[in-house]
Amino acid sequence: MPTYSFFFFYFFLILMVKSDPDPLQDYCVAQTQGSQTFFVNGAPCINPADTSPSHFTTSALSKPGNTASNPLGFNVTLTNIRNLPGMNTLGLTMARVDIAGNGLVPPHTHPRASEVTILVKGSLLVGFVDTSNRLFTQQLREGDAFVFPKGLIHFLYNIESKASALAISGLTSQNPGAQLASAATFTTKPSIPDDILQKAFQINGQDVSRIRKNLGG
Prior knowledge:
alpha+beta; globular; 5-stranded antiparallel β-sheet; 18% helix
């Protein structure tokens, strides 16, 4: 491959792996009224002349989430273009993470975003696994922050048995996505064939059925 072709290909790859495209204007407040008749990366903009400070403000993260809504004892509240329309095209998301005593945000990934988490209240054990299966963990105290690299499996665990924990996260995409490792494996529709799961996890058919049932699959 000629040298100039190599560098062209290299810079093309760099452009392709950016999280979200850069905005082409100062802001693009999302048009969220009415049904969407066409689909784009993000949402259509309202007329800039109709923009107001309220479009860039939200109280969505001010109220505690219901950690009793699932057996793992956690709740994640996200900003989005409906509760914060001014975030449209800016390539970011904020999240409030409430975790009950001994609650767990289970191993999961964000395929389109890196994440930085700041512990506001409580004590958390957090960690991620890199692609060589090396585990990085850290116990966080109030005011500590931790970064989860894009696409890597990570978790947050409240090590206190009675006290709840509160964290705030920032993610580098308007639509970071979230995929729980356990649910993505055992609760798909249609189901991954049992033979594949048995071989992959070195378990038997009864184990597969039990895990599916426990996860609601």
